[in-house]
Amino acid sequence: MGTKELIAKRAAQELSPHSVINLGIGIPTLVPDYLNESQFYLHTENGLLGVTSVDEEDIDPNLVNAGKLPVGEAEGAAYFHSADSFAMIRGGHVDVAILGALQVDGNGQVANWAIPGKDIIGVGGAMDLLSGAKKIIITMGHVSKDGSPKFVERCTYPITSTRVADVVITDLAVFRWKDGGYELVELMGEATLEEVREKTTAAFRVSDALLLKEEC
């Protein structure tokens, strides 16, 4: 299993059946591969509730998600104007948003829409989702392509929202926001506690359960 798939599979474990879930671009789009889609309501902000996977021979070029990837429509799916879709988000009707990130910092702030000096897509719906969704899950590589940490003391890229991310899942670890800071609750794959500390500049606590497991 590849790194992205490992992260997506772990993110799927955070989801409760019958919840409304918005999936961001990149790793989040892999999450449905690890879900029984009939038990979840997948939402895309360009106007569809009831997103499902689609076989190549059934692709409709007019039916895409917010990342312009082809999708299918589940039985009972509903279409609506993008303004209504964002009203759902802003009104608190999306249970979980799973988003990628360029950086997350120890204060729970997320930067995922701009790198100074580089031309990338822009903020899209991320600002609204970070403000309106009931639970935020960030999925990302633990370090960038040049090896620099992405879980940092303080974001150096423009932040997307002042909302705290509830869960951060990387290829090395799972962090959960608790009592005003992040707690490392799980190591991913073959990662070690020492490796996570080496590649992280954000402050975090280690859960008692994980410490006990490491001692054993």
TrEMBL record:
Keywords: Transferase
Key word Transferase present: yes
Annotated InterPro entries: 3-oxoacid_CoA-transf_B, CoA_trans_fam_I, NagB/RpiA_transferase-like
Secretion signal span: none
Gene3D superfamilies in alphabetical order: Glutaconate Coenzyme A-transferase
Family: Belongs to the 3-oxoacid CoA-transferase subunit B family.
NCBIfam families to which the protein is assigned, alphabetical: pcaJ_scoB_fam
Protein name per UniProt: 3-oxoacid CoA-transferase subunit B
Organism: Siminovitchia sediminis
